[in-house]
Structure formats: C-alpha cells, structure tokens
Write a structure and sequence with these properties.
The chain is of the alpha/beta class and 376 residues long. The protein folds into 2 domains: 116 residues, Aspartate Aminotransferase, domain 1 (Alpha-Beta Complex), CATH 3.90.1150.10; 245 residues, 3-Layer(aba) Sandwich (Aspartate Aminotransferase, domain 2), CATH 3.40.640. 36% of the residues lie in helices and 14% in strands. The chain is built from 12 helices and 13 strands. The strands form 3 sheets. It has a 7-stranded mixed sheet with strand order 2-8-7-6-5-3-4, with helices on both faces. It has a 4-stranded antiparallel sheet with strand order 9-10-13-12, with helices on one face. Strands 1-11 form a two-stranded parallel sheet. α7 links the parallel β5 and β6. The radius of gyration is 21 Å and the shape is globular. The protein binds pyridoxal-5'-phosphate (PLP).
C-alpha cells in the first residue's frame, strides 16, 4: 500500500507546531531519516566500524536514487551538494579557449559560479534572459553555436518556480552535440524526473530540499556521453577498481560514476538521504507530483483573489512546479514574512517577494494557515 500524505505527515514532528511550506529552502527531517542516521552514529559509538555492512547500505541508497530517476545505479555518484556536482563538469571537461557554455540569467549561483570561473581558461558564459521568467526552449537553443560545449539549466527555477521542458531541450540538443547539464534540486523529490524519456547528460541535486534528506549530501547522474568526456579531477582509493589495494598503485578508474567518489563517504548523509528517498518511493513519484501540484495550484488560484500578485503565472500546465512566489502590490515583503513566522507559517523571503513550497505531506489546513495569516 502506498504511503498516504496523512501517514507521511505523522512522520514529521515539525507539523505539530508549524505550517512548514518551505521545501524549496531546507526540508525538515522525518523521524525515519533521523533514526537511520542515529543508528549509524550509535553503532560507531559502540562497535568497530563494519565496512561491508555500511557499504551494502550505500549500494542500496544508490539503487533507490537510480529508481527515482529511472536509470541504472552505475550512473549515480554521491556528492556533497548541488554545487560540487556541477563542479565535477566544470573542472572535468577538456575546455579550450573559445568554448562557451549557455546558461540562464537569474539561476541560483550554484549553477553560475562554476561556469563563470572558467573565464580564466577563455571559456565564455552566455546567459539567456527569460522574458517574464518564461524559458523558451527554442530561443535558448538558438544561443548555442558550434563552440557550445554545455547547456546548464535548472529543472525548476528557484525564484519563479518555472519548470523547463527538459525532454524538448534534451532532444533538441542531442543532435548538436551540446551536453545538457541540469541542476535538479528544485525538482528532484517533487516533480517526476524520468530520465528514460528525458535525454540529459548530467543531472545533480543536493538532498536538503524536495528530496527531504539531510544537508551536506547529494547525488549526480552521469550519462554515457558525459562519462566518456569527463575526467575525475579528484581521484583517490575509491575512484579506482582496486580500491582495497593500498600498496600496488593502479590508477585504473572504476568503469562507472563511482570513479567520481574519491574516498571516505559521508555515510550519515547518504543513509539519511536513502531513508528520505524510501519515503518518496513508498508514496510513489506520480502521487507526490500530483499532490505537490494540487497544493501549489490552490495557492496560485487563491492568492490573486486576496490581492497578491504571482511572480510567474504559468501559461501551460507543464510549466508549473511546487514553487509559488508572490508579492503584495503595496505591503513590505519582510513585514509579511515576519507576520507569517509569528503565525507559525514557514516560507521564504527572497528579495522583494515571498516563496511558498508545499510538499506531499502538507495539508489544506497548512495552506489555510498561510492564507489566513496574510493580510488582505
Ligand atoms: C536552483 C538551486 N540550485 C542549488 C541550490 C543549492 O546548492 P547547494 O546544494 O550546492 O547548496 C539551491 C538552493 O537554494 C537552488 O535553489
């Protein structure tokens, strides 16, 4: 039986006090996530470290992440966060002066700075400026030329909630030999990411938002084209095939994405992320997406009738995500934010607007609390 939103809610003690609607920022932890990490910590407090035992778990978590993306586990590497995932590509491709990267203006810095840093190698970062926050795939593709090596984009824009048509983008660029690199942190765990139907070359995310995992761990999907072209810059014992041979050096890299996991893994983080992904898989990615969109749609429908403006009004259903950003034409966003906090409603303040981001286990009562606390 799938895990219902009500059952999942019972695993979130934070819901007893707060209407927590801020999954685009940092997710609270569910009790099974916490207890999974605690089991690891207490075992290591009481017993000698059992490598084989924890490696089995690490393998299981890799399998679960792969299941969530509908790919094989050999294409998944664990990372520290989204930025370090994107950094694998920025430092690992064989750039030449005159190459360029096409990105999108107003992306979160995680998906800008790794590319900007390549200017020292003579690599240009071209930014697409989305009109009214709407990314037109055809116009974006037109920015690519024969020196474009990478197109870097978020699956969902962190500020507006605009969801990109990754399938159309991936299909358009496949023929042009441009590697499609996706920052998926605002989608993974909330919106379905079926990579069988979405030809991207690289996709990564930290666990701390919609994936409902701890902070300081994440994953990267490394597709076949990317694996072929990417050199692991940081290599260590875990990058190589003979990872338990410490004296006969042999720099033969593992044949898959694990070559990017250089050494001692973040077991507490990986195990915690695995426990969170288990919950999402038990709920079912389709059911999670439907519930998130239903809750977000309710806000998109009701906020305007209460005098609030949406930062982005999606024109097509496929542009929607779990992020609803809004402002009042006259009221100061910081004051509204404080007022909501005092009412136990947690959302984000981002420059001149507010951003709500409900997840599967949120209820209509949580949204009522938000709507009632907002002055009209
Ligand atoms: C689109 C996007 N990418 C990345 C991040 C965070 O990056 P990291 O996991 O490296 O901290 C955020 C967080 O706000 C984000 O919204």
């Amino acid at each position: 039986m799938p895990l219902t939103p009500q059952e999942m809610r019972a695993l979130y003690p934070i819901t007893r006090r707060y209407a927590y609607l801020d999954h685009a920022a940092i997710a609270p932890l569910a009790t099974p996530v916490r207890s999974t990490i605690e089991v690891f910590l207490s075992r290591l407090t009481e017993e000698p470290f059992d490598l084989a035992h924890w490696e089995r778990f690490r393998g299981q978590v890799r399998g679960r992440i792969a299941e969530l993306l509908a790919v094989g586990p050999e294409s998944i590497a664990f990372t520290k966060n989204t930025t370090s995932g994107l950094g694998l590509v920025a430092v690992g491709l064989d750039w030449e002066a005159g190459d360029n990267i096409v990105g999108v203006d107003r992306e979160f810095p995680a998906n800008i700075y790794p590319w900007m840093g390549l200017s020292r190698k003579g690599v240009e970062l071209r930014l697409y400026r989305a009109e009214h926050g709407r990314i037109d795939v055809k116009a974006l593709v037109r920015l690519c030329d024969r020196r474009t090596r990478v197109l870097a984009i978020s699956a969902v824009q962190f500020w507006s909630g605009f969801r990109t048509d990754l399938a159309a983008l991936g299909t358009a660029l496949r023929a042009r030999d441009v590697l499609v690199v996706v920052d998926a942190i605002q989608a993974a765990g909330a919106m379905r990411l079926d990579l069988r139907a979405t030809p991207v070359d690289f996709l990564c995310a930290g666990a701390q938002k919609w994936l409902l995992g701890p902070i300081g761990v994440g994953f990267a999907y490394i597709g076949p084209r990317m694996l072929e072209r990417l050199t692991p810059v940081t290599v260590g014992t875990d990058s190589v095939v003979r990872d338990e041979e410490y004296f006969e050096y042999d720099l033969t890299l593992k044949p898959d994405a694990r070559r990017f996991e250089e050494a001692a893994p973040n077991y507490p983080g990986i195990l915690g992320m695995g426990a969170a992904v288990n919950l999402l898989l038990r709920a079912g990615p389709a059911a999670v997406e439907d519930a998130v969109l239903r809750l977000a749609d309710r806000l998109r429908n009701e906020l305007p009738s209460r005098g609030y403006e949406l930062v982005l009004k999606p024109t097509m259903p496929s542009e929607r995500s779990g992020i609803v950003s809004f402002r009042h034409p006259r009221m100061v966003p910081a004051e509204l934010h404080t007022r909501l906090r005092e009412a136990g409603v947690i959302i984000s303040l981002r420059s001149d607007f507010l951003r709500a981001s409900p997840h599967y286990y949120n209820s209509d009562e949580d949204l009522d609390r938000l709507l009632e606390a907002l002055p009209q």
